[in-house]
Amino acid sequence: MTPTLAAQLTRTAEEAAHAHRPACPCHNTGTLADRPDATVVRHAETVAKAHPPGTDHTELTLRLATASTLPDVLLPPLKATPAELHDRLVTFWPYGDPVDPRTPDTAPWAAAATLLARLHLHPPLPRTPPMRGPAKAARAVERLRATEPGSTATTPVLQAWQALPAWARGEAAPPEDGTLCHGDFHLGQLVRNPAPHDDWRLIDVDDLGTGTPTWDLARPAAWYACGLLPPEDWTRFLTAYREAGGPAVPPHGDPWPALDIPARALTVQTAATALTKAARAARPLDEVEQSLIDACARMAATPPELTCESAT
Question: Less Cβ crowding at N or C end of the chain, within 10 Å?
Fold first, then answer.
């Protein structure tokens, strides 16, 4: 983001904070994230987010409306419609404390699964756009192709990608596309809702929409299958989702027939992103990143209806 845009977004957050709370203490200010796809700044208890250039105003407004109608699941926005700042749409949110990555033993897997189940059970609003999970995975693969076209590590990632059905690559409608989904779930999409609730809520509505609910379970499923998520955390997550009546997997028995293809797609997406970042930084892969490449090699050699041994 340009310095001018950054400064204006900060002033916009300050104005929104003061409008929401005239006696604003004006503390805890600064940039929370600054990436090509989003810039997020905070002023006291108000957060302003600049969305990517080209974000559709109508679709984003519908996603904000969904968050407003589900305050027990999604953090509700402070304003019902986006503002405009240069070529960016800007939304406003209450600040919530994120999950602490330094304490993985206390990660709220059960709370996250319950929120996802509630989201999946809620009827989508009319004209809700499709969730953007598969399209986001496809963009990660395209970035990899552009960055590392001849890399040895790229080959198993692309082979695993091509083995997926068209819907998982964002090239066709999914077999089930009427469920309200988050579209990009991971623990970074959780914050503690401000007082008086003080409980967890999902954030980031950019990819929210209708689609296949297994996509929202796919990232933790992929981490588990690749050995990156402890079995007890996966069990806690899956059990809580089932107990809350989540429709993505059967209430009993083996969940993997439903999860296999989305989990493979998220493994490829994560591996592609890791390879692209490592290439741009001119650094070798770390142990976790290499494990993702190895998982893609196994997937490329195994039919989609079969799964990793650790996930069966």
Answer: C
